[in-house]
Write a structure and sequence with these properties.
Elements lengths: L5 E3 L12 E6 L7 H8 L6 E6 L17 H13 L1
Parallel strand pairs: 1-2, 2-3
Length: 84
Amino acid sequence: MAVARRLCFALPIHILRRNPSLFVHGTRDPFGSIEEMTQALKMIPAKTELMTVEEAGHDLGFKGKAKAAELPRTILAKFQAMFG
C-alpha cells in the first residue's frame, strides 16, 4: 500500500490527519512563530517534521532580496531524508 507524503509550504495544518508531512517555515513569518508551529504540529497524529528557514518570512525569501539559491535543494534533501 502506498503512503501519501506531503511537503507543506502553505497548507492549513488542521486538515492533516494521517499523512506524514514536512513543514517548511521561516523564522520571521508574520503569520506564525516557530513556537506556534511546534505546538500546532503536536496536534497532528501523523508523523510531522518542521524545517525552519532562518531569517525568512512567509515567502521563505523567494520573493524578497535575500534569495537563497540552495534552499530548494536543502528542502528536497530534508524531504528525501524524512521519507526515503
